[in-house]
TrEMBL record:
This is Probable membrane transporter protein. Belongs to the 4-toluene sulfonate uptake permease (TSUP) (TC 2.A.102) family. It holds the Pfam family TauE. One of its GO terms (cellular component) is plasma membrane. PANTHER family: MEMBRANE TRANSPORTER PROTEIN, TRANSMEMBRANE PROTEIN YFCA.
Length: 245
């Protein structure tokens, strides 16, 4: 990749890390759609998968006392079929199809953010439900890097408290990210050029999170969140338009 491309990727992840630090919305939802204008859709997804792993590690450590290990176990078992299916789809589908899928996922996330307040938690704990949610989350993460909304839906219907949701979903993503990285590496999807982009993305994402720390207390979070959701919706629509042009 050229210096200009790497610079744009770095800026995208600084913004993505900042957004995650302020709103807890995954930075990949901001950075990855921008990177599709610089790299191929498949490369953008792989960069996002490799860069996004560091935040779940930190959050799982911070909230480790609240992890629901029983559910995390069955969620993680769902990674076994989900990762393989997702990687198979990632290697098989075309660029336009990936762009279309990414756009749909972003639009779904925005819609879910508006509808989630009306959800009445009532889903009982069943190992099968956790396994299916884990499979769906692993599949979407492996092929689009956007599996977070599935786990958010599951957590909402289960009625998890904020700390339990943060701890358990991020612990799940630690297992998931490890499996995805190993699976993508075995599938031969990584290149030296991709590693160069990731080497720029990782410190950029951490810098963005660091910048967000002094801003969090001063910024009206609700107003910023509405603006951010509007940006994500616009990104989703743009990706869909690009996929059919």
């Amino acid at each position: 990749m050229t210096f200009t491309q790497l610079f744009c990727i770095a800026v995208s992840w600084i913004v993505g890390g900042f957004v995650h630090g302020v709103t807890s919305i995954g930075g990949g939802m901001i950075a990855m759609p921008v990177i599709t204008f610089i790299a191929s859709p498949r490369e953008a997804i792989l960069i996002s998968c490799l860069t996004s792993f560091i935040i779940p590690v930190a959050l799982a450590i911070i909230y480790r006392r609240h992890i629901l290990w029983r559910e995390v176990l069955f969620l993680s078992l769902g990674c076994l079929p989900g990762i393989q299916a997702g990687i198979a789809l990632l290697t098989a589908v075309s660029g336009p199809a990936l762009l279309f899928a990414l756009g749909l996922m972003l639009i779904f996330f925005v819609a879910w953010q508006h509808l989630s307040r009306r959800v009445r938690p009532g889903l009982p704990y069943r190992p099968l439900y956790a396994f299916l949610a884990g499979t769906a989350g692993a599949f979407l993460t492996a092929c689009t890097s956007l599996g977070g909304p599935v786990l958010a839906v599951y957590a909402a219907f289960r009625g998890w408290e904020k700390e339990k949701a943060l701890a358990s979903t991020n612990m799940f993503f630690n297992f998931l990210n490890l499996g995805i990285i190993l699976g993508q590496w075995q599938a031969g999807l990584y290149s030296m050029s991709l590693m160069g982009a990731v080497a720029v993305s990782l410190p950029s994402a951490m810098l963005g999170v660091a910048i967000s720390i002094p801003v969090v207390r001063r910024m009206p979070q609700q107003a910023f969140r509405k603006l951010l959701l509007g940006m994500i919706l616009l990104s989703g629509l743009t990706l869909i338009v690009r996929s059919v042009m």
